[in-house]
Design a protein that fits this description.
- The radius of gyration is 28 Å and the shape is elongated.
- The chain is about 40% helix and about 30% strand.
- Helix 1 crosses helix 2.
- It folds into two domains: about 120 residues, no CATH class; about 60 residues, Listeria-Bacteroides repeat domain (Immunoglobulin-like).
- The chain is an alpha+beta fold.
- The chain has a four-stranded mixed β-sheet with strand order 5-4-7-6. Strands 1-2-3 form a three-stranded antiparallel β-sheet, covered by helices on one side.
- The chain contains three helices and seven strands; from the N terminus they run H-H-E-E-E-H-E-E-E-E.
- The N and C termini lie far apart (about 100 Å).
């Protein structure tokens, strides 16, 4: 009889321990899931809305479509609440707070929250941070490329008879320096 009570008690403790582990583990998995998926979903949503040529002045329609597209972009079987926490039209930034509500294995409800800041006009930001670098040989364009601000440009393969590259002032090209403006180099 003592052994039966001991086995039943051990089984109950085991089931409770398993439920606790599943509850805590489930919350952690949900938290990691929303924290890893939210940035990509936000970027994709902003890019999709930018393709639709929204004007930021049409704020209410933009925000409604943003929240709808973001909620659809987050792949989850739980309830999602998307909140816009702050909008700064001058800086073209917006705060987004996403709360995911789900059921634990024990039947109780749990939730995880993640917040991100969104740049509303990614095309403009990329445009401002990219520079064009051109290389000319004998007055003809030899190569052109776009370089992100602060990155370096690789020296192109030199055509036969070319010693190197110089800018319009006659200074030798330094390909180790970060690009901070549009650049033009000429073969010499």
């Amino acid at each position: 009889m003592k052994n039966i009570v001991l086995v039943i008690t051990s089984a109950i403790i085991g089931v409770l321990t398993l439920a606790i582990v599943m509850t805590v583990g489930g919350r952690e998995v949900r938290s990691m899931d929303i924290n890893s998926n939210l940035p990509a979903a936000v970027e994709q949503t902003v890019a999709n809305l930018a393709e639709r040529k929204y004007t930021i002045a049409d704020r209410n329609e933009y925000l409604a479509d943003f929240m709808e597209d973001l909620a659809a972009g987050l792949d989850t079987d739980s309830d999602i609440k998307v909140e816009i926490t702050n909008v700064d039209l001058e800086r073209k930034m917006m705060g987004v707070k996403v709360t995911e509500t789900f059921d634990h294995p024990n039947g109780r409800q749990g939730s995880v929250t993640c917040e991100r800041t969104v740049i509303l006009d990614p095309a403009e930001s990329v445009k401002d941070s990219e520079y064009k670098v051109r290389f000319y040989v004998s007055g003809h364009l030899y190569k052109a490329c776009m370089v992100l601000a602060g990155e370096t440009v690789n020296e192109p393969v030199k055509p036969d008879g070319i010693s190197g590259w110089q800018d319009e002032n006659g200074y030798l090209a330094d390909f180790g320096q970060p690009v901070t403006q549009d650049l033009t180099y000429y073969a010499y």
